[in-house]
Amino acid sequence: MKTSTKRLVVLLMLLCMLLSSISSALADDDDWYTYTYSYWGEEMASPNAYAVTNIIYPTTIDPELGKFTSPSGMFCIDDLVFVCDTNNNRIVEFQKVDGVYRLVRIIYTFQVSTQLADRLEFEGEIDNTLFSPTDIYVKKMTLEERIENYGEYRGEQYVFPEGSLNPEEPETPENPDENNTENNENTEDPDSSTSSDTEDGEGGEGGENGEGGENGEGGENGEGGEQQPKPVKPTERKPNVVREQLDREYDFFIADSQHCRVLHCDYNLNVVSVIRDPKDDTLGDDYIFHPEHLVTDNAYRTYVQAQGGLNGFMEFDKTGTFTGYMGAAKVTISLIEKIWRKLKTQAQKDKSEQFVPTEYNNLSLDSRGFIYATISAIEDQEIWDGTATPVRKLNAMGTDILIRNGNHFPIGDISWGNTKHAASGASRFVDVIAFNNDTYCCLDKTRGKLFVYDFQGNLLYAFGNVGYTRGRFSQNQVTAMDNMDEETILVLDSLRGNITEFTMTEYGRMINEAIRLYKIGSYDESADVWRTILQYNGNLELAYVGIGRALLRKGEYKEAMRYFENAHDIENYSKAYQHYREEVVEKYIVYAVLILAALIIIPKIIRKIKKMRKEIKEA
Amino acid sequence: MSKVFSGIANFFKGEGWNHYIKTLRYSLYVILHPFDGFWDLTHEKRGSMAAAHTIVILTVLTHIWDRRFTSFMLNNTRWSEFSIWLNTLGILVPLIIWVAANWGVTTLMDGKGHFYEIYMGTAYALTPYPLIGIPMIFLSNVVTKEEGVFYTYFNTFALIWAGFLILCAVLMIHDYSLGWGLVAIIVSIVGMAVIMFVVLLFFSLISDAVVFFVSIYKEILFRL
Predict the structure, then answer these.
(1) CA–CA distance from A82 to each of A93, A485, A499 (Å)?
(2) How confident is the model over A385-395, as a mean pLDDT?
């Protein structure tokens, strides 16, 4: 008995080992460009929803532009694109005309009226230059609206003194920084810069070899990617370069980060108002306001994501007064944590990690005034178990109203261990854009990917990657993206200093169409579109759900159940099943009752007959 | 050959079959009167190994049927990763390791039970699982997701019941007090971990050794 049991154990263990080795041998090989996630979290290949249609190098826009050095902000409005070329202390404005991008102007300085001039004071001088501009928000505004909300600003022009800024400071000549000299080259003598820059441009254009050179530069700026190149203060007031005289009713809100202010100016670069030096009890005396990203809503409130802002976004009214924080997450401390904190000594408390609330890293405004915000200063584990939310949709109260009904949380990649690529760890969102149909796109810097979610939080498609070919980005260095229209996305790679233009494909348009039809209530038409999409991509579970919903409304429950089962949509399956069960019960209830009645009555009758017979016999 | 058939036929006709049926039906008494039941199971020889095997097989089958036939709404089985063998082993291996560990531990802790008695007791204690599980599979197919909580409740109940029965089995078979029985169970669980560790170690060493000899063999082939 015992020996046989032993043998059995050995046999079973052997079998176990064998089976486990088989399953690991079947590890799947997935390296799709565009993909979605199945219910089980597998990457499923998808047709491309966006195609790379253009790679924009500064030199292809205009030879005079030189390079972008650590550009960190970008904004698109109509046909114009604004890039905050952070370390070159300038903002580049270019225009898309017939599919070609051409330079409009390079913004270095602003004009200001005498009554507003002192608002531009920085380190004892009226400074109208940009110092590490990190983001720009462009808002459509007419002159009347501007004057009504911000007052008259076009007074007598302040005349700036000639020559360089802060001439007594010998700092810059002593440390001839790379960026600085390059800066001078680009702008001071256009002839020499043009020749040198075209070389760079050719290198860049000439294909992927060009990346090598730029990577080299990245190495100089900061090895390892995390270390940002140091901003260098502009030494003189450079004149703006104007190529096209456009007449637009736009206002700029610029996060002039190292100048500790937000500049608001009209399209002709006259400063309208300045947001600076926020005063509040919660801000310490030594607090320095370094705005990084910003939006301005329709009520002319400006929301600023500033460096070290742990309490959410800083909200400013149109007079530039700090009115409070917005979107700060409530910090919840569990009971165990409370008890634990009681037991700790003061030294331990100081040593232990602070409860760090929300540190947003970017924001954008959707067409209905909701703020989409991203957070990347969170632990991988929190992202994994859903306690942290890397992307949020904030209403006016600052409450997160993003719907997360998908099979997976909108956290980007849902499996990140053991990837073949050097990049590992959770997706880190650095930018988000919202489209008019409430789909939104998040930019992940870890793996250089874009994730597009629908209004319910289902992943529609994810694409992009780290690499050197078209449509791939340098790791951890994508900084911003924006959409030119509903179908074009621009992504800014700060290390390579280029912009990748993605344009929606037919497949992407069909998905948008299906969503649109669903949202206006044309479920059948929506299902028809989903059916077409299924022919392109049989992996898309959303399509099955879409079709299933339409069938459910039509009353074809059995068929609907089949579709919901394909998509593993338990909620809807249950609804369909309930109706289906009713149908079946209604159909067979008569027979069931009849059979039941027969089962009860027939024995009774038999008994009666038997009784009668007996009586007859006895009689 | 004919001998075998006649043997089987005799079993079904004769005393053997009756005894088997009687011992199998005794499992229903055991789960309702655990203390009496488990005492008599071994001490009065009212259980049989054949019945114990039957219950174990039923448990394995219930487990597989549960995965296979439970309604889609309550069944989170990923078919591409489903393996009947792994599911079978998932029941059998822990069962056997448990019996071995419990036998080893109770031998040192003055337990009265033999190896086969522990196996029999544990098998009988598993009875609620197929008993409740099989009807629940049918039930799951006529309920919606909201009504599906009954399925979950009843299955959880079956597991708790079986766990309680295993405790009773340990107490009765080894003639332990409650506290001592609980200690024995905890030590047995630790013992299970130790056994698994040793077995895995053994196999990994063996496989290393095999790889070593295979590579020597290959090397010799290359040199020749």
Answers:
(1) 5, 14, 11
(2) 88
CB contact under 8 Å between B78 and A578, yes or no, is no
> Distance between CA atoms of B53 and B62, rounded to whole angstroms?
14
For residue A571, the chain B residues in CB contact (below 8 A) are 145
Residues of B in contact with A40 (CB under 8 A): 78
Task: Pick the closest to residue A46 from A569, A562, A533 (CA basis).
Answer: A533
What residue has token string 């178990």?
A385
Q: How far is CA A573 from CA A540, A549, A560, B38, B146, in A?
A: 17, 10, 8, 45, 12
Cα A147-A152-A154 angle, rounded to 5 deg: 115
Q: How many whole angstroms separate alpha carbon B36 and alpha carbon B71?
A: 38
In the three-class reduction of DSSP (H, G, I as helix; E, B as strand; rest coil), residue A390 is classed as coil
Contact A234, A123 (CB under 8 A): no
Nearest to A119 by CA among A279, A276, A321: A276
**Can you say whether the dihedral through the CA atoms of A320, A324, A326, A329 is positive or negative?**
positive
Q: Where are the alpha helices (DSSP H) in A423-569?
A: 506-519, 523-536, 541-554, 557-567
Domains plus CATH for chain A? Answer: 51-276 (no CATH), 359-503 (2.120.10.30), 505-588 (1.25.40.10)
Q: In chain A, which residues touch B (CB < 8 A)?
A: 1-2, 5, 8-9, 12-17, 19, 23, 40, 565, 570-571, 573-575, 577-578, 581
pLDDT at A22: 47
Dist CA A39 CA A41 (whole Å): 5
Q: How confident is the model at residue A376 (pLDDT cuts 50, 70, 90)?
A: confident
In chain A the first and final C-alpha atoms are separated, in Å, by: 71
- CB A64, CB A186: distance < 8 Å: yes
Which residue in A151, A149, A195, A116 sits closest to A302, CA to CA? A149
- pLDDT over 70 for what percent of chain A? 80
* Nearest in space to A91 (alpha carbons), one of A225, A312, A240, A208: A240
Which residue intervals of A111-189 are DSSP H helices? 143-150, 171-174, 178-188
Return the ∠ at Cα A610 (arms to A608 and A613), rounded to 5°: 110
Q: What is the per-residue pLDDT for A226?
A: 46
**Mind telling me how many Å the CA of B73 is from chain A's nearest CA?**
6
Would strands A472-473 and A125-126 be described as parallel, antiparallel, or unpaired?
Answer: unpaired
- Give yes or no for residue B140 having a pLDDT over 90: yes
Taking the C-alpha atoms of residue A541 and residue A38, their distance in angstroms, rounded to an integer, is 7
Q: What pLDDT, in 10s, does the model give residues A197-242?
A: 333 433 333 333 434 333 433 333 333 444 556 778 888 888 888 9
Over residues A238-273, the pLDDT tens digits come to: 888 898 888 889 999 999 999 999 999 999 999 999
Give the pLDDT confidence score for residue A188 in this predicted structure: 41
Q: Are strands A498-504 and A322-326 parallel, antiparallel or unpaired?
A: unpaired
Give CA angle at B146 (B143, B147), nearest 5°.
Answer: 40
Q: Answer yes or no: is pLDDT of A9 > 70.
A: no
Which pLDDT score is estimated for A119? 87
Euclidean distance between CA atoms A87 and A179, whole angstroms? 7
- The mean pLDDT value for A345-358 works out to 63
pLDDT for A358 equals: 66
Segment A152-173, tens digit of pLDDT: 888 888 888 766 666 554 444 4
The mean per-residue pLDDT over the stretch B199-203 comes to 95
pLDDT surpasses 80 at A471 = yes
Residue type, A357: P
Q: Which of B72, B73, B92 sits opposite A12 (nearest CB)?
A: B92
The ipTM, to two decimals, is: 0.81
- Are A556 and A578 in contact by the 8 Å Cβ rule? The answer is no
pTM: 0.78
Nearest to A157 by CA among A218, A113, A203: A113
